[in-house]
Amino acid sequence: MAKIIPINNQDREHWKQLNAEALEEVQDQALLEMIKMVLNLHEIEHTGEWRQAHRRLDFSKSTFGDYLQLYARWSLPEFRLLEEAVFENFDELKRKGLYSVLIRLRKEQEKR
């Protein structure tokens, strides 16, 4: 069974290929696009590309959280929750959908 995996900076093309194979199993188009967005943001965070992402804005003195807030309107904790849903709960995500997975993860966070 395919699984979405965090970035491997050593071989980014292979990482993209492995995740593309896993994404073929996702039937819901909206969920697929959300997962792709999380993967894209995950990649540019780990490569540092977000600092040069916009020519008109200087992110050199900003944090990735600042970039997220502007680009996706997400806070860093919200993004980390989405990453957890994608990387650690992919099978459940495909079966039950994003909403139910995020609700469960949020409840688990509150218990900690």
UniProtKB/TrEMBL annotation:
This is Uncharacterized protein. It comes from marine sediment metagenome.
